[in-house]
Amino acid sequence: MFSSLRKLFRSEPDPREARRPLWDAVVATARAPHWYAVGGVPDTLDGRFDMISLILALVLHRVDEDPERGLAGVQLTELFVNDMDGQMRQIGFGDMVVGKQVGRMMSALGGRLGAYRAADGSAELREALVRNLWRGQAPDEAGLAHVLAEVTTLRAALAATPVSDLVLADRLDGVRP
Question: Is 61 inside any structural domain?
Fold first, then answer.
């Protein structure tokens, strides 16, 4: 019986926390002022969510290229869910609403994971960015060009980074562990 109680109260580290630096880097990258000031992405709750989803999708695409790192992608996604849940509760959403909203966010992320596989510079990527970042409203051409260029630069940096290093990264500018 004593060993059962000890197991109950033993605190083992959450394995997802190994991905916390990468998650923090995703959020920091998505919150970089240039997306909003130069790119014209709306600096709203929705705009911030859309940017986090974009950066997370690009990172998850790269992690998915290494089948041995699949768990890291799952853990990163779970951190996304936990963070979104916490943010919604902090804003004041109740238990009944939070679950539905998180479900919608996961669905949105799933759609973006597919849409953001489009090739750099393609009409498909351009359309996906307009649809998701600006909610279908035509953005300023200079802002869209900035976002497209930054996505291309980030993809190149991610592609040049071994996935084993990426899953331990604590920043994404130039992507280094």
Answer: yes
Cβ atoms within 10 Å of 159's Cβ, excluding its own: 11
| Separation of alpha carbons 116 and 98, rounded Å | 26
pLDDT digits (tens, 9 = 90+) for 27-85: 999 999 999 999 999 999 899 999 999 999 999 999 999 988 989 999 999 998 888 76
* Domain count across the chain: 1
Q: Using one digit for the tens of pLDDT, what is the confidence trace for 83-119?
A: 876 666 666 666 666 667 766 877 788 889 999 999 9
Answer for the pair 168, 177: CB distance below 8 angstroms, yes or no: yes
Per the CB < 8 A criterion, the answer to whether 59 and 26 are in contact is: yes
Separation of alpha carbons 83 and 74, rounded Å: 14
HSE-CB at 95 with a 13 A cutoff on CA atoms is 0
User: Is the full-model pTM beyond 0.90?
Assistant: no
Alpha helices in the chain (DSSP H): 2-9, 20-30, 33-37, 45-64, 70-91, 95-115, 123-133, 141-159, 163-166
For residues 106-124, one letter each, b for 16 or more C-beta atoms within 10 angstroms of the residue's C-beta and e for the rest, the string is eeebeebbebbeeeeeeee
Evaluate whether residue 11 is within a structural domain. Answer: no
List the domain range (segments joined by +) for residue 102. 17-166
